[in-house]
Design goal:
- The structure is a single chain.
- The protein is α/β, with parallel strands linked by helices and 303 residues long.
- The chain has 13 helices and twelve strands.
- The strands form four sheets. It has a five-stranded mixed sheet with strand order 10-9-8-11-12, sandwiched between helices. It has a three-stranded parallel sheet with strand order 3-6-7. The chain has a two-stranded antiparallel sheet with strand order 1-2.
- Strand 1 and strand 2 form a beta hairpin.
- It is globular, with a radius of gyration of 23 Å.
Length: 303
Amino acid sequence: MRAFHRTAFAFAFALTAQTALAADTVAVDTARGVVEVPNQPETVAVFDIAALDTINALGISVAGTPQRLYVDYLENATSNAEPVGSLFEPDFEAINALSPDLIIAGGRSSRQVDALNELAPAIDMTIWGDGLLDQAKARFLAYGKIFGKEAEAQGLADKLDAKVSEIQGQTANAGNALIVLTNGSKVSVYGKESRFGWLHTELGWAPAIEDVKASTHGEAISFEFIRETNPDWLIVVDRAAAIGQDAALAAETLNNKLVAETTAWKSGQVIYLDAAKVYIAAGGYQSTMDTLDALSSALQKTN
């Protein structure tokens, strides 16, 4: 009889331990599949700016961030966080001293996930490629699950859906658009399969040209190319401005006789997006909503 009681007690203890362990972690979707992470971690280091953007929108404070964020709207929100490296290179000593419960990496820091995982649970939350907005919503919900903010995260996803639906109505009859990135005096074009392709594929904005090579840094073009393509709209991203380089601004680079012959230029249909938001923090809730608001505002002025 005593042996039976001991066995029953051991079973109950094991079951309780398993239940406690399950409560201590949650399973979330990441760029590398479903991963178990700490439930409602208190000390968090974040290297991905899109992740930091969304986590901030959920009202969550973080303990460690890159020393340079490149986006000014997050500066106050992270003023009390410890610097733990750069977007590309973590400061492993600083991270070790911080002793985080969870490390969130992605994008430019994604290659460091395995090394970071040696110090604390680390996840790759990269947003890249097709379906940027769908990926962004998946990240909203994942952060909501991790931090016990599921209702708030669903609210962010719903607001994004509503804004996208609004813009799809605007782009339906807006004509075509050409997405260009300037880097000083250099200009590249981006198509449907690029990092900015969601502007076409998810917002329903017809591309001015179909056969653009898929490339991380776009396809280099000339001003003659822009004139010959003759887009109804020019959507411009200034890389130099995004990363704080002292180079010619996009408006200066594009202000020439060839570009001036396009329908977009003549009609005043040139949209200069906030480069840091669309280039550095792409997929973050605040950056994405601000970008969509800028596009919607420009479209309204011509309707």
